[in-house]
């Protein structure tokens, strides 16, 4: 059986249920906003979780960072001290090294009586030798040595009473051997 609507057109119900359409669109909009809000809340929660993890890692690394900073400061102090020592070593010539090197070049026929420094950073050595040949060999060794420069035989005299040759030598040290 078919229904016939005999009401005038203005009073007839519409073919589209407007109330149901508004209700359906409202539910869809509410679902859309809810899903967007849920996504944003989840993203915010994830970012806060990552931020907390980063803060925890930062707190755990703080003692290591302090130790590294202290180590860097100590290393800088050590480097400054090392540079100062290198500078002082280059500026100051070690007397022990000079005397040890000078005596290493001598022969058993040469005896030193006095070794000292002059005003011009020259080494002055006085001593005795058994004969002139020992002094000339010693002077040749000084000229060939890489530690000494400009060896000069200042004075040589034969001592008739003790049958030895007295000598005086000046030499300039080039630098400290390492």
Question: What's this entry about, in short?
Answer:
The protein is of the alpha+beta class and 178 residues long. The protein is built from 3 helices and 4 strands; from the N terminus they run H-H-E-E-H-E-E.
Task: State the main characteristics.
single chain; 4-stranded antiparallel beta sheet; 54% helix; 178 residues; 21% strand; 3 helices; alpha+beta
Structural account:
By secondary structure, the chain is α+β, with helices and mostly antiparallel strands. It is built from three helices and four strands. A hairpin with a 5-residue loop joins strand 1 and strand 2. The mean pLDDT is 87.
Summarize the SSE layout with pairings:
Layout (H helix, E strand, L loop, with lengths): L17 H74 L3 H10 L5 E8 L5 E7 L2 H13 L3 E12 L4 E10 L5
Antiparallel strand pairs: 1-2, 2-4, 3-4
> If helices are DSSP runs of H or I spanning 4 or more residues, what is the number of helices?
3
Biggest sheet character: 4 strands, antiparallel
Helicity range of the residues? 40-55%
| Order of H and E elements | HHEEHEE
């Amino acid at each position: 059986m078919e229904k016939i609507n005999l009401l005038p057109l203005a009073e007839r119900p519409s073919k589209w249920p407007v109330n149901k359409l508004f209700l359906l669109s409202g539910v869809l909009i509410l679902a859309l906003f809810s899903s967007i809000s849920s996504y944003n809340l989840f993203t915010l929660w994830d970012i806060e979780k990552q931020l907390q993890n980063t803060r925890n890692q930062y707190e755990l690394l703080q003692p290591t960072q302090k130790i590294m900073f202290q180590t860097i400061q100590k290393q800088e102090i050590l480097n400054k001290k090392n540079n100062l020592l290198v500078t002082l070593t280059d500026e100051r010539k070690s007397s022990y090294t000079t005397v040890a090197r000078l005596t290493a070049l001598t022969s058993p026929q040469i005896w030193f009586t006095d070794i000292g420094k002059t005003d011009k950073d020259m080494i002055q050595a006085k001593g005795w030798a058994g004969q002139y040949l020992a002094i000339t060999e010693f002077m040749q060794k000084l000229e060939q040595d890489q530690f000494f420069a400009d060896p000069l035989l200042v004075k040589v005299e034969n001592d008739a009473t003790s049958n030895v040759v007295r000598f005086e030598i000046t030499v300039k040290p080039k630098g400290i051997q390492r």
